[in-house]
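Assemble and predict.
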Amino acid sequence: MISVGIDAGSATTKAVLVKDDSSIIQSIRSTEFDFVSAAEKAYEDVLEIAGIDRKEVDHVYSTGYGRNSIKFADGSISEITAHAKGVHHLYPDVEGIIDIGGQDSKVISVNKGKVTDFLMNDKCAAGTGKFVEYTARALEVPIEELAKMALASKSPAGISSMCTVFAESEVISLRAKGYSKEDIAAGIIESIARRVAVMARQIGLKRNVAFVGGVAKNAAIKAALEKELGISLYVLPEPQITGALGAALHGSN
Amino acid sequence: MPEENMQCFKTLEYLKNSYGERIHQISDERKSGKKLVGTFCLFVPDEIIFAAGADRVILCGGKNDTVSIAEQYLPRNICPLVKSSFGSIVNDGCSGIKSCSHFSMVDMIVAENTCDSKKKMYELLGDYVPTYVIDLPQRPDTPEALKYFLSELEKFRDAMEQLTGNKVTTEGLRQEIRSSNETRQLLHRLYELRKRDPSPISGADVLKILQKQYFLSPDKLKEYLQMLINEVGSVEPGQVHKPRIMISGCPMPGGNTKVTEMIESKGGVIVTEESCTGTRSFWDLVDENKEPMTALAERYIKIPCSCMSPNDRRIDNILELAREFRIDGVIYYTLQFCHGYNIEKQKVQKALKEAGIPMLSIETDYSDSDVEQIGLRIDAFMEMIS
């Protein structure tokens, strides 16, 4: 059985090919303007790596914001269900998932791979990858360096705005007041962690919590979330592909 | 699969013409000297208006396009229902946006002190249309509250007599109570049919008629309800179970069908609505054996609106509906900045959790800006409860 899952996210498009529920092949691409062409390319990537012809693929399932525009898919599932299935496959004990993606963040409560409750952030950028991206820009720091910088801070600056645009101006005024880059970076990180932790507490995530999505690669956010929630989070080796993996597994079941 | 499709009901085809017919009817009535009253809320007893020989139409706005008109006068961050209603009423047409014609036809607005946004909006509306406000006690379960509410209804009755020049008689009230109870019983019969699994009628179809409940004349409404009940009652029992959804929370006035349509396009079927465009409007009857004004006060004060405190009656009601209608999941629907229903969500969530019924919360406005985000939540919720 060969099954492919495609996660058409707002920032990146992920494809995962699963053969007989075990071997996993993946591709991550920038989504750019065209969801469909990014999905098409990611699909071709995994086929090429696996050395498999399109005709040999039994099922293609899509997930992510662009899930309904992927016409070559047999069907689609929501990212929430997809993450639960994908994470459960790699981490069978999982009871909770925190996913911070490009334009939204989600917390999911899971029991034996099935979603039992979930929450998503409001329809603004607070608590998302976009928030980090914008505020890092106001700090004139490449996003890759933000985590390292934040971890070096001894006293994080307080950032209270939930609105990304206002937080950006808050960062600029902190700069004007002479705060160090490290402390402002740590303030940004704490702010997003607080926001997401509120949701995690609302649905009662307490143990065996996995941290997924592109932002999970940021060690400072992981540390801040762990501090905020008082638990340790499990970051999967490749936290960005769990949605696509879940979609692929959905197809093979 | 054809069996997946819901039946097309002729009644709802006829209902499409009902707006124009009703506008003709109220224009004719006004020409002959009959007064037209505009209302916003279930707390205003129709029976008193009709017993005074006036007619009434509901002025709750559900359309997004008049929101921008209201924002010239009202803060942006208040609920869309208040903004849409206000915008529809004060609209002078200069912006090129059209309001539905009935908004400009009322002789008097009869308002009620429920939430803060509405209370303050009514003060502003008074500059445009004569506006009468019924005060509501907000701790409904005390004898003093009932006494006070009764006195407010008596004052309201007097105001209606003054507006119309007609006397409101006990017999007249009794007759209107009987008539309104008939409507309520018809709605009960329609909802009874929705208890079947699968439901023979979609929530979107029921909403079409409920949105006109306080717009049409009672006689016309009863006629449509009777026709619809006959049609729905003769639908062949279906085979395909769809997740049975209850909507709980804010009303969905005419023009606003966004969330209902999304739920049903994603595989669910709404089988009951714990809202003002749902069970809250008709669930309890008025006692026909009591003195009419007292009976009205007793019935109306019990409407479980979130402006009341405590409002445990609403929680009990939700649990009872969930059991009766065999609900698979509740979609808690609130309008942005509706603090009452938004805060009460905590209590509802807790009670449903204890009862083992999943709940999804959706907070939205009348615009389409959040359709994708809401769609994802509904998809995930359907996958979760299926």
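Residues 176 and 187 of chain A are 15 Å apart (CA to CA).
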